[in-house]
């Protein structure tokens, strides 16, 4: 009989711990899904702004409300491989005309034009064309790693688009 109170006491404590863990999991999920997250970039397409292995803090609110603007650095699903995320700068909005070599292309409604800052080493809209805004996952706010290079990623317009 003396074991019964101890077992029920342990069960109550375990239920409390489990409830706490579920709450933490829900809060973490909501924060990552709806607010923002931390990502590591790979590749050289955004140099000299972002280097391979830089870690960025991103936010997901701006893309959800379609408030992306020209010059923003975004994280998007690759139009050519949806298993891969790409980090590029928005250089054109719907209605803008993108210059590609000797030709031009109008960015259609619901799309953006993305380019890497390292033009000579970037697979971007010059290759795969305008990107549907629905593929935009997050907007980069700041670089948080390496510590010596912590900085806000401010909006910088590139002069490759005409309106």
UniProtKB/TrEMBL annotation:
Q: Which GO terms fall under biological process for this protein?
A: protein processing involved in protein targeting to mitochondrion; signal peptide processing
Q: Where in the cell is it found?
A: Mitochondrion inner membrane
Cellular-component GO terms for this entry: mitochondrial inner membrane peptidase complex
Provide this UniProt record's keywords sorted from A to Z: Hydrolase, Membrane, Mitochondrion, Mitochondrion inner membrane, Protease
Active-site residue list? 45, 88
Q: Which InterPro entries match?
A: LexA/Signal_pep-like_sf, Mito_IMP1_subunit, Pept_S26A_signal_pept_1, Peptidase_S26
Entry superkingdom: Eukaryota
The EC designation for this entry is 3.4.21.-
Name any one GO molecular function: serine-type endopeptidase activity
The principal location of this protein is mitochondrion
| Keyword Membrane listed | yes
Coiled-coil regions in this chain?
Answer: none
Q: Which intervals hold domain Peptidase S26?
A: 26-97, 104-145
Q: Which family does it belong to?
A: Belongs to the peptidase S26 family. IMP1 subfamily.
Under the heading NCBIfam families, the entry gives: sigpep_I_bact (TIGR02227)
**PANTHER family hit by this protein:** MITOCHONDRIAL INNER MEMBRANE PROTEASE SUBUNIT 1 (PTHR12383:SF16), PROTEASE FAMILY S26 MITOCHONDRIAL INNER MEMBRANE PROTEASE-RELATED (PTHR12383)
Assembly with partners or alone: Heterodimer of 2 subunits, IMMPL1 and IMMPL2.
Q: What is this protein called?
A: Mitochondrial inner membrane protease subunit
């Amino acid at each position: 009989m003396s074991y019964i109170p101890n077992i029920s006491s342990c069960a109550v404590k375990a239920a409390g711990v489990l409830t706490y863990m579920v709450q933490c999991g829900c809060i973490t999920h909501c924060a990552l899904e709806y607010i923002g997250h931390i990502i590591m970039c790979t590749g050289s397409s955004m140099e000299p702004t972002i280097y391979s292995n830089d870690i960025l803090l991103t936010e997901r609110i701006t893309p959800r409300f379609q408030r992306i603007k020209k010059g923003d650095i975004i994280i998007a699903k690759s139009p050519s491989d949806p298993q891969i995320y790409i980090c590029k700068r928005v250089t054109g909005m719907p209605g803008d005309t993108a210059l590609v070599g000797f030709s031009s292309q109008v960015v259609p409604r619901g799309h953006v034009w993305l380019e890497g800052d390292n033009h000579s080493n970037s697979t971007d809209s010059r290759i795969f064309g305008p990107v549907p805004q629905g593929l935009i996952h997050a907007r980069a706010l700041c670089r948080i790693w390496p510590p010596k290079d912590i900085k806000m990623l401010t909006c910088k317009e590139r002069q490759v688009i005409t309106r």
